[in-house]
Design brief:
Distance between the termini: 33 Å
Structural class: alpha+beta
Largest sheet: 5 strands, mixed, barrel
Helix content: 25-40%
Strand order of the largest sheet: 1-3-4-5-6
Order of helices and strands: EEHEEEEHHHH
Radius of gyration: 17 Å
Oligomer: single chain
Length: about 190
């Protein structure tokens, strides 16, 4: 893991994964202010699974691992609520948190980027499964190049996003630095 940084955290009842996309409706003043500040600084913010509490109201207790969220797109809904399309970037580990004007702010340590390892023979089934899921899910999930279907990290994150997993399972995957250990875990969850 690398340097420590300060990152505002948005606790959510969902896990954002690296490279994945998620929709988010933002209406609380503290989060609107956070978005304004992070866009002004050119940075993102952290999305963490809620371990205790709720998305609205009093600050919730976030998981110790999360993903930096970047805004891909935004719109104002007909109800006047800001709607965001976020993309997951870097993984991080929260070293400590502080409360700041109703926000949870984390001192985070960035996790090392995934290696570009190729799939191991014991994980070939996962690539085949992913190909079948992509055929059903459509073009939005298709790899930019066919070679990605042989890349352990890409296959793992795509399956983690597309399989019907519990959020606690996605969090388990997010906590693992070893791309092959993630694939082992996914393989064990497939009936």
């Amino acid at each position: 893991m690398s340097v420590v940084a300060t990152l505002p955290l948005f606790p959510l009842h969902a896990v954002l994964l690296p490279g994945a996309s998620i929709g988010l409706r933002v209406f609380e003043r503290r989060y609107l202010d956070m978005l304004r500040d992070s866009s002004r600084d050119g940075g993102g913010f952290g999305l963490c699974l809620i371990l205790q509490g709720d998305e609205a109201g009093a600050p919730a207790v976030p998981a110790a691992f999360g993903v930096e969220a970047r805004v891909d797109d935004f719109d104002m809904g007909s109800d006047g609520v800001l709607q965001l399309r976020l993309r997951g970037a870097r993984r991080f580990h929260v070293e400590q948190t502080v409360r700041d004007n109703g926000l949870v702010v984390g001192e985070v340590r960035w996790c090392a980027p995934d290696t570009d390892d190729e799939l191991r023979p014991q994980h070939a089934l996962l690539s085949t499964l992913l190909q079948h899921i992509i055929e059903q899910a459509g073009e939005d999930y298709a790899p930019a190049t066919p070679a990605l279907l042989d890349q352990a990290s890409w296959v793992g994150w795509q399956l983690a996003q597309l399989l019907p997993l519990e959020e606690s399972q996605r969090l388990q995957l997010l906590q693992l630095d070893d791309v092959h250990a993630r694939l082992d875990l996914l393989l064990g969850w497939i009936p």
